[in-house]
Specification:
The chain is an all-alpha fold. Helix content is 73%, strand content 0%. It is built from eleven helices and no strands. The radius of gyration is 22 Å and the shape is globular.
Length: 304
């Protein structure tokens, strides 16, 4: 369940920060009259995300009668979820420092157009996170079919994210968002590796890939599936005591290179000239020390 809690926390905080940036910009710009349109767009995005999640579940359980079809559907959604997770964590790593400015620019353009444009801009800013959350949650929770635990964990993660977002907006909490997204991103890569492993197993059960009975190893005697720690590893990262050869290749082949790429130090910008050292670098250094991203500073409304 920790994996689904992490998904809710990570995606929920991203969406909460986006909404906070939009609200803070309207408050600073003395355009509180446009706040209802922002909340309308956010509400529609949340509703469609829930509908999308229900549609995926309904398709799997009600529309696909043959077990082979269900296995194939689950395998395809697992691969799609891994693609979304990978894209999301690398996009957030690259765009964290510019996201606030981009959102402010888009919202300024929307304000010039009208109410529908403001609502549409808020909708588009949130719907991506919502659709990603629904797809990733469905794939991560496949091992707990019929159990409400993963859903409750996801809701708990989202609620935690909303609370953190509100505290950040109210300046009651300061966290280094850069480190937060780095650590959660690394954990999500391991979760995605487990989802990919699960997808490969589904492809094997559907008959698309061979080797369903070719085990890479069997450590059931050491890692008893009935123990709590085995259940924890299986639930978080889909680490099982008797995986197939293809499952193991998929897990290691994804987790190792993607982790190395994600955790490698970011390329530093060229050192500023002597004429600007006393001004620009001091500002950037202060921003890095305070929050780690531009997004946190943008969520704090100006005080009178």
């Amino acid at each position: 369940m920790f994996a689904t809690y992490l998904i809710g926390l990570r995606e929920g905080l991203e969406a909460t920060l986006v909404v906070s940036i939009l609200v803070a910009f309207l408050v600073k710009s003395q355009r509180r009259d446009r706040l209802p349109q922002v909340w309308a767009g956010v509400g529609l995005a949340v509703a469609l995300s829930v509908l999308f999640g229900w549609l995926i579940e309904y398709t799997s359980t009600s529309l696909l009668a043959r077990s082979e079809d269900r296995e194939l559907f689950e395998a395809i959604t697992s691969v799609a979820a891994v693609v979304f997770v990978t894209w999301m964590i690398f996009w957030m790593r690259r765009a964290a420092r510019s996201i606030a400015g981009e959102l402010r620019g888009k919202l300024t353009e929307a304000l010039a157009v009208g109410s529908l444009a403001v609502a549409g801009m808020a909708f588009l800013a949130v719907i991506r996170e919502g659709l990603e959350t629904a797809l990733i949650f469905y794939s991560a929770a496949q091992g707990a079919a019929g159990d409400s635990g993963p859903l409750l964990a996801l809701i708990g993660g989202i609620v935690t994210a909303v609370v953190l977002g509100v505290l950040l907006y109210a300046s009651a909490l300061r966290i280094n968002l850069s480190k937060f997204f780095t650590w959660t991103g690394a954990l999500l890569i391991l979760v995605a590796a487990g989802i990919l492993k699960y997808g490969v197993h589904d492809f094997q059960e559907a008959g698309v890939l061979p080797g369903l009975n070719d085990l890479a190893f069997d450590i059931t005697g050491t890692l008893d599936p009935s123990t709590w720690y085995a259940a924890l590893l299986a639930g978080m990262f889909n680490v099982t005591p008797a995986p197939t050869v293809l499952e193991t290749i998929a897990w290691v082949g994804y987790a190792v290179p993607v982790l190395l790429l994600f955790l490698r130090p970011a390329r530093r910008k060229p050192a500023p000239t002597a004429a600007t050292t006393g001004t620009d670098t001091g500002t950037e250094r202060g921003a890095d020390t305070d929050t780690g991203t531009e997004a946190e500073a943008a969520t704090t409304p100006q005080r009178a």
